[in-house]
């Protein structure tokens, strides 16, 4: 048995509007949004009385999707430290290939995002950096140089 494809990555956020704005700056488009609740959601999450708002964002090439999830119930559970460093166990980052790292960093900084470390070049292949995205996730940016 093998997987057919990676369907989407899900990010739990506390501010849905800010998350939509962040990923829109990257060039993603809003595909759809809906409130979700009911017994099946409780069962799949292993939680009771789940009420969430879901937004699906799509990449410009139409191949990638990102699910933004805002829990209305139950309350969000914080992690320690709240802004986890890059060496924290678990999902490390979501990477996007962009046309220009410098322009993308400038656009995201103008919206309040922070650069982690600095922009660096890997051989003659890529310019790379990490930005702090919604809910403290790390968003990696890569510019192809070839």
Keywords, please?
146 residues, alpha/beta, 2,3-Dihydroxybiphenyl 1,2-Dioxygenase, domain 1, 4-stranded mixed sheet, globular
What does this structure look like?
This protein has helices at residues 16-25, 39-45, 101-110; strands at residues 9-12, 29-37, 51-58, 65-73, 94-97, 114-122, 126-132, 138-144. The mean pLDDT is 92. The strands form 2 sheets. The protein has a 4-stranded mixed beta sheet with strand order 1-4-3-2, sandwiched between helices. A 4-stranded mixed beta sheet has the order 5-8-7-6, with helices on one face. The protein is globular. By secondary structure, the protein is α/β, with parallel strands linked by helices. The chain folds into 2 domains: 9-73, 2,3-Dihydroxybiphenyl 1,2-Dioxygenase, domain 1 (Roll); 94-144, 2,3-Dihydroxybiphenyl 1,2-Dioxygenase, domain 1.
What would the principal axes of the Cα set say about the shape? globular
Largest sheet: 4 strands, mixed
Top CATH class of the largest domain: Alpha Beta
CATH superfamily of the largest domain: 2,3-Dihydroxybiphenyl 1,2-Dioxygenase, domain 1
Walk me through the topology.
Elements: E1 9-12, H1 16-25, E2 29-37, H2 39-45, E3 51-58, E4 65-73, E5 94-97, H3 101-110, E6 114-122, E7 126-132, E8 138-144
Parallel strand pairs: 1-4, 5-8
Antiparallel strand pairs: 2-3, 3-4, 6-7, 7-8
């Amino acid at each position: 048995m093998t997987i057919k494809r990676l369907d989407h990555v899900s990010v739990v956020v506390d501010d849905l509007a800010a998350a939509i704005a962040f990923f829109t700056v990257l060039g993603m488009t809003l595909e759809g949004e809906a409130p979700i609740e009911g017994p099946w959601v409780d069962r799949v999450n292993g939680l009771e009385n789940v009420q969430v708002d879901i937004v699906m964002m799509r990449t410009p090439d139409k191949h990638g999707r990102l699910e933004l999830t805002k829990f209305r119930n139950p309350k969000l559970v914080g992690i320690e430290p709240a802004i986890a460093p890059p060496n924290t166990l678990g999902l490390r980052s979501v990477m996007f290939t962009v046309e220009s790292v410098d322009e993308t960093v400038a656009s995201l900084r103008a919206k309040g995002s922070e650069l982690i470390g600095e922009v660096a070049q890997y051989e003659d292949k890529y310019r790379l950096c990490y930005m702090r995205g919604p809910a403290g996730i790390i968003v990696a940016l890569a510019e192809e140089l070839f």
